[in-house]
Structures
1.
Amino acid sequence: MNLKRREWLLRRSVVLECSPFAFKVESCFPEVFSNLETIYGNRIVDGDEYDGFIDYFVSIKDSGGLRRFLKDQARFTCDSLEPFKPLNRSQSYALLEWGLNWVIAAHEVSHLVIHSAVLAKNGKAVLFPAPPGSGKSTLTAYLSRNGWRLLSDEMALITPLSLEVSPFVRPICLKNDSIDLVKTWFPDAIFSSVATDTHKGDVVHMAPDKASVDGQNECAEIVGVVFPKFSKGTFCDVFEMDKSTAYTALAENAFNFSVLQDRGIQSVINVAEKVPAFEVKYDNLAELNNFLLEDIVGQSIAK
């Protein structure tokens, strides 16, 4: 029996229990399952043995027909929807992680979803909305291994009309030069296989630390919003944003802002009015960490 046929017969499914959601993941690619088990550990359950509620059904499929023998590709689907173009099979696990981001961004309505990293200290959370290239994920990796609890690298799940943010503890997506940098910092961390030559360059997913996974059901209170930007040679320049600017920036990063309609508008207003927001340009991660601890978390506890 040839390899392609054997892989087709090995098609199976697992359930990813990633609070507050459960995803059923089907694939015919063994590397998808090996990476899932590496990154998520015991949060992966055999699909045939799971009897709980499943929020989303997703799959990573091959191209089908003769194409899979000529140019093997990976396709992501959710409930028969295919939001992305097929990618090279070597990028199949990265495609799955990006697909899970899309699923929540496109369908979640019980939370206000903001494109942002979220980290917490002593139950106090800071949001880090940032565009690609800002160094957000490198910062997230550093903080999550220096006393902060990782709630998410990609999206803040905010209870509408409140300052409560729910964890969605998944891996940190590292790209290009930051891969070797973070591996040097944290040699004992767990990483996925490398997806090369993606639209983001080389990509690796770093597993969350055990303490963050153990706290995946513990919500936190938002006490600050920081828009970070790595700037070589800059000594932690901090600019406090006025409330209207903060509102606009948060709204621009909200995935389901318009879907929630009035609740979405009022939820963003609530965060902008009650929580200080800053633009921070930095070169030294330790200096930024000190600012976060003293001027955001420390000030919130002192109130």
Note: The radius of gyration is 20 Å.
2.
Amino acid sequence: MLGALLMLGSGTAVAGSRVLLGSATNTVKRQDLLGSTRPEAKHVTIRGAKTIVLAGLDTRPRQDPSKLTRSDSIILLHIPAAHDTAYLISLPRDTLVRIPRFDNGKVPYAGGENKINAAFAYGSRGLTGDAALTGSFTLLAKTLQQLTGITPDAGAIIDFQGFRHVVDVLGKVCMDVDEDTTSIHIGTDNRTGKRAAPYKINPDGTVNHRISGVTPNIYRKGHHCFTPTEALDFVRQRDLLANRDYDYGRQRHQQQFLKAVLKNIADSGLNSPAKLPGLLKALGKTMTVDDGGIPLQDWVYAMRSIRPDNLVTIKTNNGTFNSRTVPGVGSAEILSSTSMQLLKAVKNDRVDEFVRANPTWVTKS
């Protein structure tokens, strides 16, 4: 799982110490997220290929059950049977899917065609707190299972707000920015020099208009070391990307950022006695995990050979738009036949063959 990968920055440093391993895994919140998609307990084993569903959020579900929370990013983390590499495959949040019927015990959903991030929202209707997380993730997992045939081996909800605390401990996260990225959230008031919002934002999160007298933050193409505030801001941007690749740009940047965090942890985090306790605590606040019935210690040990450089990030639809307007849904992204081949390769543990046949689908990072 991502939680395990985040602890693998120093490989044997974690897996080689029972005390450290126990401390690391105890910081992570565990919860039933998979619901009825959970594999049968008698068949659970750490051996073989594994596929984990990761749902990224800007914020946790609000306590007001009338406010629906839609997942900001949806990622499949696939680990081949050899456990020597891992693949991150992002699905656009506007992907058109058929969401199955679902009863969360509070507000049933009749099912129907919609964007995939609506599954996360409809699964939590009428619920709050942990129950909302479980309902949201279960319906998302059922939707993915119906779309791909993949039964998730585990799952995790990533709170991107929480990554600020991880970067706080690391001090910074350095990575290559592949396109000029203009922030719609953070800027500088030209008159006072203080931080200010550079754009008026619509309720759906899109840009309304530029605010006069405020200069937005721009993260220029090239090598950049992000402060905690900048890191969180960077992974949220989609509207004003230089390449105008919108959600594909954001999902690519999130993949690159997660990989950069792993590399920075490998370079300094787990090898630093001063940073390690705070880093583990911060990681624990960043995610909620369903381990699929396999202890996190076993996940960490099994994945001990996976290093940041062995993490391959892949673009669905090769990072190009394939959208159409759907009545009652709006503009939605349609997965191409090659994207469906990619998902089939995940199910059959043949992603390596797909990558060899489609090298341009691999994200540079």
Note: The two ends are 20 Å apart (CA to CA).
3.
Amino acid sequence: MIYLDNCSTTKPREPVVEKMTEALRFNFGNPSSLHRMGMDAEKAMKNSRSIIASYLGVKNEEIYFTSGGTEGNNIAIQGALKARETRGNHIITSMIEHPAVMNTIREYEKKGFRVSWIPNDKNGRIDMQKLEEELCDETILVSLIHVNNEIGTIQDIQSIGELLSKRSSRPHFHLDGVQSFGKVQISLIASGIDSFAFSGHKIHGPKGVGGLYISKKARVYPMVFGGNQEMGMRSGTENIPGIAGFGEAVRILSEQGQQESQKARALKESMTRMITDQIEDVLVNSPAGELSSPYILNLSFGWTRGEVLLHYLEEEDIFVSTTSACSSKGTDKSHVLKSIGLDDNYIEGTLRICFSYEITEEDVVRTVKALKSSVEDVRSIMRR
């Protein structure tokens, strides 16, 4: 099997599974309980919090555990808007956000908030001049995706943070970091990030657990109330097995992440060369070099259908995707691909290939061979 759908989810590493199993079997106490079992569970949670905070270069008390990226984005966006609602009602975001952010902000637009949807260039980079023009005293939130989940574009967060810092009425700066956490380097403090959402299952950790960084300098109101777990930000009994596995995944990343990223970059560049050399009428939608994630390669094959190619490859035990797993079951064409100027012919023939540390050069060669055969077969049918 060659699994190349790692942007949708990743296979948990064996040490992660072991850590979770240990928690399920022996460390199953409620971390809010006062007895030893509760204290042991709390200790495991604190250890994971410390690992993640250290990895991000922030304080332990600035990390909150969530159920994943969607919840983290929602807490940050809705909580920041609630905290600043008396200061204005203007939100700035981009036209290539993940549905977790885009649909949340659309709900506030329906409620009467004014939203500026910043356009982007053909590489998926947002228009900095337009962003600066839209900023005003009423702007209370700027929410952007760090690494685009479909084409892998990395936004220039440092420059955006510097721009926002010059405003006397500085808005809350939220970053959707689900596809960047553990894969692309960032300094949250140096970039002026107020909140940053990330998830465990994108980095070979478990599903159902994520993290949210909220700067101590930022104001974010809780949106769910209960027993005041997670320092009052996210009430509800914590997922200790998931949190333990999440911490282990990040611990491994801190040791191996840079090397794995370099390997992924080399494989991505190798596959890109092979495909463009061997297959006609193909567009590479992911920006070249350091402008995009080393883990994401988005390609459009003219006169094909992405979903058909996906199933052809599946027959060869090769797994890819056509678009974001969070929107792939819908009927609408990708808003991201539309925003970079692709016409319907190429949008319909798009595949997203996402690498991991487990992929080899032999896997790349086999995938390209199978893909070439599949494209030729589909085109021969469609052009009859």
Note: Residues 240-278 form the longest helix (39 residues).
4.
Amino acid sequence: MIAPAAAALRDRLRWRLIAATATPMDSGGVVDPAVLDRYLRGLVADGADALAVCAHTGRGPYLDLATRDLVIRCAVDTGVPVIVGVGGRPGEHTDEVTAQAARAAAHGAAGVLVFPVDGDAVAHHDAVWRAAGLPMLAFDLYTRPYPAAKLAALLAHPGVAGVKVARLHDALACQAALAAAHRADRLAVTGEDRMFGPSLLWGAEAALVGLAAAAVPVTAVVLRAFADKRYDEFVVAAADLDRLAGVTFTEPMDGYVQRMLWIAAEEGRIPASQAVDPHRPALPDGDRDQVLRVMGRR
């Protein structure tokens, strides 16, 4: 059985683009509320149907509580559904994650994206559900994938509305997770920036992707063309999106956050001074130029 609140979120997000937002900040890690507000509203204006904040793209595991609260409030003020990432920090305890979820609920979030955990994942999700009462998206992430039996157990939890599948390059695992969501009557959400078009063909019915942290229209058109069965447009748009994904979601893979911030600055969404990822890995010389060159060809 699925809880009414989870079923409602499942149905509300079907065929919707959920932008996994970045968190604009300066080199000192300071977030300007006005810049943040303009950035989030711009994503919505350009086609994001919902916002995912404090997830990996937004460096949620690194944000302090005050900054998390600010980001959530600004996102909720846009008027679209807001999914808040909870957890993701090495060594954290379930009670820390449930506290994050409860704060998200207090600020008006529509749901939470629960980072994967080792050990008893069902008990962890159940604690989050009991503490916050918010519908949950489970997270099948390539760095900490759930075995099939554990994912099935998670999808049977009444508070789980769906699963975000982000297996990066494992097509078989992606297909299996999406199929598991359908069997459980939960929302199959693609988080596959490098397999975006194929994942829709495999059964995804919504998207929560870092590619939509900027360049929202090019992502939105792929999802909407597929949902509307405009397949000729879908093929062209998916190829266009894949070219962008090829230079943003590439090794070092965690550099994608900085790359999306470069794009956001180039689009005028944020000032260049706020397009800083303090947690970025070392990036190759010429990386920024390559990203912006491909972006300009769209």
Note: Residues 90 and 98 are 15 Å apart (CA to CA).
